[in-house]
């Protein structure tokens, strides 16, 4: 809002015109002293960018309550997503979770509208815990993989043990796994997890305190039928 012109400023307001801009701001419940930011483009990119920008603005303006923990559940994750790289439908997160609606949803719904029984616990913007209700029906699992472009023979070859367990009668099951390191990070008022874990790795994936990874001995490689192919030094 510009006090000089008694109107909304910025390139979007200029292009929309005064009356449409005022109507837009009124619909958002904004007034003098407020600002609205707009992002556009690929949702997978601009949604993340907008979230980072909102957090940065809130932090800079001291609008974030830093002395408390705020928790929330993230639920109803999409079962599938469109892979722009492969130009096909693929799993969005956990291919082994149960789709909401079961087999009926897989057979009748647009794959991109199907939700999964997946959930996260988030605290102050950090994912602390992730989990799901697992798929325990072989026929549903095969159908889900078929939608993602995987032939049943491939699924049987790679996950045959799991499918057989389902056919023998696996009960419904699910759970979640808390990240203790992340919880400690928040309690210690840190923003980098390497500050609280016992043996942090550097950017090259090395543990400098334990000198790991170290070179494997030839007898260890032979035991596992592994042969190394070191780069040729020029």
Give the SSE order as H and E letters.
HHHEEEHEEHHEHH
Q: What oligomeric state do the depicted chains represent?
A: single chain
Residue stretches low in confidence (pLDDT < 50, at least 5 long) are none
Largest sheet: 4 strands, antiparallel
Give the strand order, joined by hyphens, for the main sheet: 1-4-5-6
Number of DSSP E strands: 6
How much of the residues is beta strand, in percent?
5-15%
Class by SSE composition: alpha+beta
Q: Helix count, per DSSP?
A: 8
Please estimate the helix content. Answer: 25-40%
What is the 3D form?
A: extended
How far the N terminus sits from the C terminus, by CA atoms, comes to 63 Å
Mind telling me the C-alpha Rg? 25 Å
- Whole-number average pLDDT? 90
